[in-house]
Please model this.
Amino acid sequence: MALKELSDGSPDGTRLGQASTDKISFYGATPIVKAGAVTTLATTPTATDIATAVNSIISRLQTIGLIA
Model:
């Protein structure tokens, strides 16, 4: 099977999705629209704040199929 490149070599780069409403996914996951922002942590976040932010990031990566 031949490898298919997504890039055409343009110096401007390669983009997946033209708008935030375009759906994408990886490794056979169901495509979804772009997730909302993760809440920015305060200057001195609590352990709960950190856990909430990290868990949100993990959940979003799982949803699009980048991690199991």
About this structure: The mean pLDDT is 94. The first helix runs from residue 47 to 63. Residues 19-36+45-68 form one domain.
